[in-house]
Amino acid sequence: MKHLLRQWGICWLMASACTSALAVDRHAPSGKPELVRRLRALSPEAKWYERPAIRLGFDAHHPQGLVKVGHSFYLSSVEVLRKPEAIDPGRGGFDRGPGQGVGHLFRFDHNGSLKEDLRLGEGASYHPGGMDFDGRNLWVPVAEYRPRGASVVYRVSLDPLRSEKVFNYPEHIGAVAFDPMTRELHGVSWGSRNFYRWRIPRRGRVRDAEISPMALRRPNPSFYIDYQDCKWIGDGLMVCSGLRSYPNVATGGPVFSLGGIDLVQPSIPGPVHQIPVIRRSDSGRVITQNAFWVESVPEGLRFWFVPDDGPSLVRVFDVSIDLKDSAVPAAPGRR
User: Fold this and answer.
1) What is the overall mean pLDDT for the chain?
2) Which one, of 1, 15, 34, 23, lies nearest residue 233 by Cα?
3) Of 15, 42, 79, 289, which shows the fewest CB atoms inside 10 Å?
4) Whole-structure pTM over 0.85, yes or no?
5) CB 310 within 8 A of CB 38
6) How far apart are CA 328 and CA 324, in angstroms?
7) Under 8 Å between Cβ of 176 and 186
């Protein structure tokens, strides 16, 4: 009888492990090696085809990060109640006050219907940033709405949404990407001027969070766009979207905003492949202004963008990729 019970226990444990693995696989990003290959082959000559947009049935406020898991979308956003006002930089080293707002993490379906609204943040840290998904959890930074403001990094489980504060950091972290192989969380500062890396232990505190920003940061050598949202895609790379506005110095005309998609290797640190994006939303914003998600499809790549505020649209594009004629070199070796 004991032998039978022991066998039953082993079978039950194996079944539980398989069930857990299937639960993770159900949410895990798929096709990452192919995604890396196609993003490396993305060029300015690629053909973009717009698909029907998803109209959001709720106020998305000011979107920041987007993740797609199965048929569900997750959108981080800041609801600004009072804009930060300019102050004397001598007062605490800030050029503006903290303002006031509410951080949101929305879950909505492929029809744009809101399913959940999780509030994130603490104190003056109410501005969620670009976020990533590790196959089981979302990683979301929430920062003060000003340069050099403090941040809180959350790990959020799905079904239903539940947040866990992982660590605080005395720097504005505008976006993060999580490497599940090394358990390293990579972050970018306000304007993506600096890169950060934190090793995330399975248990215990994040010791890298005790290192000052001055000692931990590594400067970004590229200036042509500021990253808004980033995703880890493997092979030592993350893909980031963003934009930068350029004044018309010659004529004094309107400011020109250039969008872009970069493959970034944090171990360098810096971009290894850069593609300008000039497509715009109906409001005139470049589509890479805020939140995005990307997946590989048979013809190439599919992008989802949320560039506009309020009850906006998720703009969907298919991009054809010619892999046969691609001669894009592999990223340099990792550290």
Assistant:
1) 88
2) 34
3) 15
4) yes
5) no
6) 11
7) yes
